[in-house]
Design a protein that fits this description.
10 helices, three-stranded antiparallel sheet, alpha+beta
């Protein structure tokens, strides 16, 4: 069973983080690792579950206090901590392992189960690091999706030596000090007893091998840095600030491990007329008093171009009309679209001529026997 990661590490925080920092980190990461942005990749479902578990503990003051003192053991019924015990004096088993590790180096396997599992060997296959990049797209591109060429600098296997670091026709020798494992064990007598410490092999640098004739192109590193253009398919319905993960487009892995991912964060330029609210599109449309009173056929800008809409007579300012299916496609199902909401604002005419003012007064005198808005204004003038 895989060892649980530190909850603060899961959220990318340091111990002592405030409640606000915990909440902000959780919201950002849940949005970044949303499974809908990584279709077919089950690992992101596991990441989301891990985030939820970490946030469930750190967002609860009582659970957080226990976790800060005892770590994961605080919630293990077999740990025997309770809320005091040995962990209370040393800050928990994990913290004691860290203290011993800081004194003697590496991990400890010979002290009653304390400490970690030792240094991770550099000879094992390791996934490459991820690359972060940004792309700025238009409002309509975010709505309907698009393709973008993204330029990244990434570390790849050297094509001269195939990533071995050895000159063509040669091979590396197994390190005689660590026998190819990349790690060595030492024992040291301490007040706690004899401690067994595992550290990286100094002779080979933890690689487990010695390169006698290094590759001239990569100087024996096995890796080179290259500029690459990656074609990215940005899904319809993506929103500003969301991140897309492209598997295998990051830095090359080590010892045959898979390449990392390219994490592309999208920035969406604002539209000059339209606004977005989830899958809805909002538009405020100015109309004249005459159009509102008599009704009129107007042209409304949408993501699909201008469409005609009939404003009914007697429309009041602030009235909102719905244009079904003219909104943003759903990120989960691009065949499903939201709606567009059009709010009309009646513009009051300015700089009227004398004749126009007189006509409006006559109109006011004639409306409903003087019981309407214009008649009230007329009374005020008297």
């Amino acid at each position: 069973m895989a060892e649980k990661r530190d909850y603060y590490e899961v959220l990318g925080l340091k111990r002592g983080a405030s409640d606000d920092e915990i909440k902000k980190a959780y919201r950002r990461l849940v949005k970044e690792y949303h499974p809908d942005l990584h279709p077919g990749d089950k690992s992101f479902e596991a990441k989301t579950m891990e985030l939820n578990e970490a946030y469930g503990v750190l967002s609860d003051p009582e659970k957080k206090a226990k976790y800060d003192q005892f770590g994961h053991a605080a919630f293990d019924p077999n740990a025997g901590f309770g809320g005091g015990g040995f962990g209370g004096g040393f800050g928990g088993m994990d913290d004691l392992g860290d203290i011993l590790g800081s004194i003697f180096g590496g991990g400890f396997g010979g002290f009653g189960g304390f400490g970690g599992g030792g240094s991770r060997s550099r000879t094992s296959a390791q996934k490459g690091e991820s690359i972060r990049a940004r792309a700025t797209i238009e409002f309509t591109e975010a709505a309907f999706g698009c393709k973008k060429d993204i330029s990244v600098t990434r570390i790849e296997d050297c094509d001269e030596c195939g990533g071995t670091g050895c000159a063509p026709g040669t091979s590396a020798d197994s390190c005689p000090d660590c026998h190819g494992t990349g790690t060595v064990q030492t024992q040291q007598r301490t007040p706690f007893g004899v401690m067994s410490s595992t550290t990286s092999c100094r002779r080979c640098g933890g690689s487990g091998k010695l390169i006698r004739t290094p590759c001239t192109r990569c100087n024996g590193k096995g890796k080179v840095r290259r500029q690459k253009t990656v074609n990215v398919n940005i899904p319809a319905g993506i929103d500003d600030g969301q991140t897309i993960s492209l598997r295998g487009q990051g830095h090359a892995g080590l010892n045959g491990g898979p390449a990392g991912d390219l994490l592309l964060t999208v920035s969406v330029r604002p539209h000059p007329e339209l606004q977005r609210d989830g899958t809805s599109v909002l538009y405020e449309m100015p109309i004249s008093f005459v159009q509102a009173a008599l009704g009129a056929e107007v042209e409304v800008p949408t993501l699909d171009g201008k469409v005609k809409y009939t404003i009914p007579e007697g429309t009041q300012t602030g009235t909102t009309f719905r244009l079904r299916g003219k909104g943003i496609p759903s990120l989960r199902n691009s065949a499903t679209r939201g709606d567009q909401f059009v709010t009309v604002n009646i513009e009051t005419p300015k700089n009227l001529t004398r004749e126009q003012k007189e006509l409006l007064r006559e109109f006011a005198d004639s409306t409903e026997g003087g019981s309407g808005l214009f008649s009230r204004n007329k009374k005020k003038r008297k």
